[in-house]
Amino acid sequence: MTTQQLILSLVLATMVFSVALELKVADFTRVARTPRAVVCGLIPQFVLLPVGTWLATLVLDLPPNIEAAMILVAACPGGSLSNVITHFGRGNTALSVSISAVAALMALFLAPFNFTWMMATNPATAGWMRELRIDPSDIWWSLLALLAIPMALGLSLSHRWPAFTEKIRKPLGTFSLVALLAFIAAGLVSQRALLNAQILPQLVIVILHNGSGLLLGLLCALAFRVAERDQRAIMIEGGMQNSGLALGIIAVQFNADLGMVIIASLWGIWHIVSGLTLALLWRRKDARLAH
């Protein structure tokens, strides 16, 4: 792990920890009593978005590496940032965390399966077919270090020392928001050489692709008739894919193909922008209803 990856991991872990300070074990107990909401959150990630992406690549006449990148991103599970975005947007954070945890485990089997069949059955990408190998240690590292440990520490601290938790909750919450904005800025700076008129078509593809994930999440939540806070969590989970995992796979399996790197990098930037925008709109809606 590079220094940059270590710093990013520590920041993400801190953000999840700050979210956990405002949760109680009872929140997860309620989620366990309603597993249909978790299932609802998994369907967009592992069924609707992958199949929808596959169908889109069959219809669209795009370069094979662009289609391969779209398929790969769609096959990846959501990342831990979705939990922070859901919390900031006042969605059901416990549900978001539960979906992320289950999705990380399912991704060990379903991400390679979805990616390989979609690549093999698309004539444009069949020549790009590779045997996808996801290192289980990467998934377990994300699940354990970025989700399970900080979440457990936050819940334990909140339960044992509620007064101390109250003092640090707001500063850590502020840090979470600043960190999200810093991710956007850092992503723009790191990819500044690619940010020119030539990547506008790829940016449009990413925006539409991400929007499809969010929309599919919302439609699934409406079909399952879950509560609004659950809808927010499921919508965010449907539209925030782990583009960092996709970039790692591209580097190892596809020799850092530039076209694929651009798609995955733009996804990493844009899904934060779209998620944060939704969260702000939801907060404004809540504020209006409160008056």
Q: Which terms summarize this structure?
A:
291 residues, mainly alpha, 13 helices, globular, single chain, Na+/H+ antiporter like fold
Question: Can you describe this structure in just a few lines?
Answer:
By secondary structure, this protein is an all-alpha fold.
CATH architecture: Up-down Bundle
Largest sheet: none
Secondary-structure-derived class: mainly alpha
CATH C-level name: Mainly Alpha
Q: How much strand content do the residues show? A: under 5%
Q: Report the CATH topology name.
A: Na+/H+ antiporter like fold
- Order of SSEs, N→C? HHHHHHHHHHHHH
Number of strands: 0
Mean pLDDT: 81
Ranges where pLDDT stays below 50 over 5 or more residues in a row are none
Question: Portion of residues in helices?
Answer: over 70%
The total count of helices amounts to 13
Count of all domains: 1
What distance lies between the first and last C-alpha atoms, to the nearest angstrom?
49 Å
Question: What general form does the structure show?
Answer: globular
Calculate Rg over CA atoms.
Answer: 19 Å
List strands and helices in order, with pairings:
Blueprint: H1 3-20, H2 25-33, H3 35-59, H4 64-75, H5 81-88, H6 93-120, H7 123-126, H8 136-160, H9 162-190, H10 200-224, H11 228-239, H12 243-253, H13 258-290
Please, could you describe this protein's structure?
The chain is mostly helical and 291 residues long. It has a single domain, classed as Na+/H+ antiporter like fold. 82% of the residues lie in helices and 0% in strands. The longest helix has 33 residues. The termini are far apart.
